Amino acid sequence: MYLAVSGNIGSGKSSLTRMLAERYGFRPVYEPYAENPYLEDFYKDMQRYSFHSQIYFLSKRLEQHLTLVNGAMYVIQDRTVFEDAGVFARNLYEGGQMQGRDWDTYQGLYRGILPALRVPDLLLHIDASLPTLQARIAARGRDYERSIPVAYLASLNRLYEHWVGGYDHSPVIRIPGDERDFVHDAGAFAWVCAQVEARGYGLPLLR
User: Fold this and answer.
1) Cβ neighbours of residue 4 under 8 Å, at least 6 residues apart?
2) pTM for the full model?
């Protein structure tokens, strides 16, 4: 069983991944943002480092799938390679931050590795408005995130809406992140768990 959690920067993906992993006994696989040697430079100069940063994430996603996801019985992943390509890399290309030849190279690599990737059995997507994203980004206090332009977050939200609307690999649970603060509100987390269990993924895990 492979669950995935998607959402914009600051939406609460990592927290929800950890909480669901603890509740249901999944192996958590987290986004390798802290290991990305280009990330700080990318937020300072997106045009120069967009291709480098996205290729790094693509390579790490492939490594995660081959070593942690593909053969796992119960696994939950914080952000997928599908949204890396369909949202983040596309946003950089459409916004003029990634050159056309770099976008073509990225797409070629992405299409090449797709056959090796396991697709989720269930996707949990967190919808969150810009004020919510900004508040959560500020609260976690990562220095390199302080310079993220509001327009960049807004563009990601727009592409996420399009991406989730066309996502057909698995059933999707959409979590209203502005209304359901699952990190600080036990009732909100219970609501998320009820949505998961309503789709047959309950305790004990038999599916």
Assistant:
1) 76, 77, 79, 80, 120, 122, 123, 124
2) 0.90
